[in-house]
From TrEMBL, chain A:
Entry keyword Nucleotide-binding: yes
Record keywords: ATP-binding, Nucleotide-binding, Transport
Domain ABC transporter: 9-250
Stated name of the protein: ABC transporter ATP-binding protein
Highest rank taxon of the organism: Bacteria
Pfam families: ABC_tran, BCA_ABC_TP_C
GO molecular function annotations of the record: ATP binding
TrEMBL record, chain B:
Source species: Pseudomonas fontis
Protein name: Branched-chain amino acid ABC transporter permease
Family annotation (PANTHER family): ABC TRANSPORTER ATP-BINDING PROTEIN (PTHR30482:SF17), HIGH-AFFINITY BRANCHED-CHAIN AMINO ACID TRANSPORT SYSTEM PERMEASE (PTHR30482)
Pfam families reported in the protein's UniProt record: BPD_transp_2
Residues that span the membrane, as ranges: 31-51, 58-84, 104-123, 130-150, 179-198, 265-290, 302-327
Superkingdom assignment: Bacteria
UniProt membrane topology term: Multi-pass membrane protein
Length: 260, 334
């Protein structure tokens, strides 16, 4: 373990119970600065619950969340976004009936603090267009700037979501299954995008696709039944007997059945 | 870079063409509004002005409601409270203080509704969907029973003989034509406020919230504050409509506070086309016209049944409302 000085995001004894069912059981997580950190585990391991706790979309039953050493356990989800912890969503979260450009611009708009100015013209936002176009160029969406977002194919919606997230200049990116439901080509695109986005940032991602994890991540935490099972880099985690059993157990079992 | 060219299905739109198309749309819209305004200016020559004023008041009411339902995605079932409060406050002040000029009376009614909107909003805004609607309904019922009991509303009888007075102390509003142009000016003002709100920096964020609320939160926006503002603007303009109506008819009554009124504005908005700019105008025109002409005819009380049937047909056949349907047709054919 390295010193706690460069831990960006930390949880202490984080727990969440739903009517007596413990979905997350005293999870201690330490995400280091500059790392791409993955949260993996079999279905129902509590990955998404941990994610929603970290992003404040759920309130923990017990435990603490610290960001840069300061507790953020009691903050509202929009408040942690302002601190620089910005999340993405499992189902690609875009604003369908706004243009691609407007999607990014509405993120850039926040720092103007004019979001309640109902008496001003929309034209007062045009100053952000150049920056928005730049951000779209970075994810290969420049040609689509004036397209209605709902018409984009799925992979590009994810790219747009990332561009929108990056427009907030987050210190920590929280990605919820960025490659979920994607074909092979789009997965490669997202890997490239995340790699680019992670420069100078910390990333915590929930991910199903172990290929993505092995390619991208510096550190991996394995969850099973709501608790941390193992932690380390991909090589050490994938060599762990317990992890193999928990993660591949069902698959291995079905293989054995098939062979029997 | 990797495989960006793989799925270029979505149409690429050139920025220059976009700007051109946008300007053309703006120009077309401007012509349309100018034509409407000219029509409104000459209308009292052909149609009874009091009827037109009633129409304008309900149209403003529906437009204010549409701002909330169509652009903030909030279904309020308590807007009657704002219509009535504007009317009662204006009626009471103009009756009690004969020195008060009419526009100040209307301003006071509008502010009172805005304040009431703030209270309703603070209590209801954190709830979603049907819960939000139910809380607004409950609060409006509370307000209704207060107005039944309170001495200044005249209870079941209402406030009669509210003086129309003089605009700015100069123009005699007892003249129906003068009154009409004053009401038209107020309507244009209210309509302009709504238009600007929709096309403002705030309007952009409001749209984002309606499109995807969790995402708007994750971008750092305080969703509750934005919804509350939409609620207060909507309540204020509803109050303006109620105050104006009271001056026109020189009457403030419990009818405006009754939950029927909350239902009626939903009907007007949905019938015309929710989330479209002119939808509420069309919806209000249809409903008010039907009510006025049918209830004077041999059909009498059957007017409600007819309206109900129209509503059912509308919901079943064109959910997007009359204007939404016309827009869809236009988009398909041109």
């Amino acid at each position: 373990m390295s010193s706690s000085a460069n831990v960006v995001l930390e949880t202490r004894g984080l727990s969440k119970e739903f009517r007596g069912f413990t979905a997350v059981d005293s999870v201690n997580l330490r995400v280091q600065e500059g790392h791409i950190h993955a949260l993996i585990g079999p279905n129902g391991a509590g990955k998404t619950t941990v994610f929603n706790l970290l992003t404040k979309f759920l309130a923990p039953t017990r435990g603490e969340i610290l960001y840069l050493g300061k507790p953020i356990t009691r903050l509202q989800p929009n408040e942690i976004a302002r601190l620089g912890l910005v999340r993405s969503f499992q189902i690609s979260a875009v604003f369908g009936h706004m243009t691609v450009l407007e999607n990014v611009r509405v993120a850039l708009q926040r720092k103007l603090s004019n979001s309640l100015h109902f008496w001003k013209s929309e034209r007062s936002l045009d100053g952000l267009n150049e920056q928005a176009l730049q951000m779209l160029d970075d994810v290969g969406l420049l040609d689509y700037a004036h397209t209605l977002t709902i018409e984009l194919p799925y992979g590009r919606k994810r790219a747009l979501e990332l561009a929108t997230t990056l427009a907030l200049e987050p210190k920590v990116l929280l990605l919820d299954e960025p490659t979920q439901g994607m074909g092979h080509e789009d997965v490669n695109m997202v890997i490239e995008l995340v790699r680019k986005a992670a420069v100078g940032r910390t990333v915590l991602m929930v991910e199903h696709n172990l290929g993505v994890v092995s390619e991208l991540c510096d550190r991996i935490t394995v969850l099973a039944r709501g608790a941390v099972l193992a932690e380390g880099d991909y090589a050490s985690v994938s060599a762990d007997a317990q992890v193999r059993e928990a993660y591949l157990g069902s698959e291995a079992a079905s293989h054995e059945e098939a062979h029997a | 870079m990797t495989n960006f060219e793989i799925n270029s299905v979505a149409q690429v739109v050139q920025p220059g063409a976009v700007e051109e198309r946008r300007m053309a749309a703006v120009r077309r819209k401007r012509w349309f509004y100018m034509a409407l305004l000219v029509l409104a200016l000459v209308a009292p020559l052909a149609v009874y002005p009091v009827f037109l004023m009633k129409l304008l008041c309900f149209a403003l009411f529906a437009c204010a409601f549409n701002l909330l339902l169509g652009y903030a995605g909030l279904l309020s079932f308590g807007h009657a409270a704002f219509l009535a409060s504007g009317g009662y406050v204006t009626g009471f002040l103009l009756t009690q203080y004969s020195g008060l000029s009419t526009e100040l009376g209307i301003l006071a009614g509008t502010l009172a509704s805005a304040l009431l909107g703030l209270v309703f909003g603070l209590l209801a805004i954190r709830r979603q969907g049907i819960y939000f609607a139910m809380i607004t309904l409950a609060l409006a019922q509370l307000v209704f029973f207060i107005y039944v009991q309170a001495p200044f509303t005249g209870g079941e009888n209402g406030l009669h003989g509210v003086p129309r007075g003089y605009l700015l102390g100069l123009f005699d509003l007892n003249n129906n034509m003068t009154m009409y142009y004053f009401v038209l000016a107020l309507f244009v003002f209210g309509f302009a406020v709504i238009q600007r709100t929709i096309h403002s920096p705030y309007g952009q964020v409001l749209k984002a919230i309606r499109e995807n609320e969790p995402r708007a939160i994750s971008l750092g926006y305080n969703v509750a504050a934005h919804k509350l503002l939409a609620f207060v603007i909507s309540a204020a303009l509803t109050g303006l409509a109620g105050s104006t109506k009271t001056v026109v008819f020189q009457l403030a009554s419990l009818t405006d506070a009754h939950w029927h009124m909350s239902g009626e504005v939903i009907l007007m908005t949905l019938l015309g086309g929710v989330g479209t700019v002119v939808g509420p105008l069309v919806g209000a025109t249809v409903v008010v016209t039907l009510q006025s002409y049918l209830s004077n005819g041999p059909l009498g009380e059957w007017v409600h049944v007819i309206l109900g049937v129209i509503f059912v047909i509308c919901v079943l056949l064109f959910r997007v409302g009359i204007v939404g349907w016309v827009l869809k047709l236009a988009r398909r054919n041109f």
